[in-house]
Amino acid sequence: MKAAAQVISFVFHPLLIATYLVLTLGLIFPAMLMIRPEHLVLVTVFVFGFTFVMPLLNLWLFKIWGTIRSFQLPTQKERILPFVFICGIYTMVSLLFYYRLPFHSHLNKVMIIITLLVITATALNFFIKVSVHSLAMGGWIGILLPLIQFSPDLLIPTAGVIVLTGVVASSRLALQAHTLREISMGLVAGLLTSYGGMVLLF
């Protein structure tokens, strides 16, 4: 049971949600991001590199320097410095997308919302420990929900993400990584941040 929960937690690591989101929209609602099918792989690689690989290298360096004990960041105190650095990385990536890379403004706005999710996770961590897994999943849902009215094809994928959110939350509980309260707070924070961002920016 715990082995399966660990695999689920890794596959749906918060840093991977931006990549999954771009793939979801690029494959099902390409008009949203204005990405040509032949360019989707390249854009996805860009997003994966900037939002997963770079922050992961950051965590690896913190691990080598002894700043953190493990990549799981089990305590609230241990999360502060890595979260602040990752927040900085995502902010720089958003600025890069917005000002330097030749992508449509819709993709740039989605990247801004993803950055807002990271900022929300970082800000909350100064006061309480929340599940960043559930925050990221809630963010994924919050971005997809308002788009269903423009593309009904997103209805089933969105329902699938909601089911996956339950699976991820259950895995975090099984691993005793979070309490139900921490998972619920993360989910609500992610959902409100991303849905609010979509309403304001689109």
Overview of the structural elements:
Helix 2 (17-28) packs parallel to helix 7 (132-144), helix 4 runs antiparallel to helix 5 (76-99) and helix 7 packs parallel to helix 9. By secondary structure, this protein is mainly alpha-helical. It has one domain. It has helices spanning 2-11, 17-28, 30-33, 40-65, 76-99, 105-125, 132-144, 155-174, 180-201.
Task: Summarize the SSE layout with pairings.
Elements (H helix, E strand, L loop, with lengths): L1 H10 L5 H12 L1 H4 L6 H26 L10 H24 L5 H21 L6 H13 L10 H20 L5 H22 L1
Helix pairs in contact: 1-8, 2-4, 2-7, 4-5, 5-6, 6-7, 6-9, 7-8, 7-9
Q: What spatial form do the alpha-carbon principal axes imply? A: globular
* End-to-end Cα distance: 41 Å
How large is the count of helical segments?
A: 9
Give the helices and strands as they follow along the chain.
Answer: HHHHHHHHH
Counted beta strands: 0
Please provide a brief summary of the model:
The chain is an all-alpha fold and 202 residues long.
Features:
202 residues; mainly alpha; 9 helices; globular
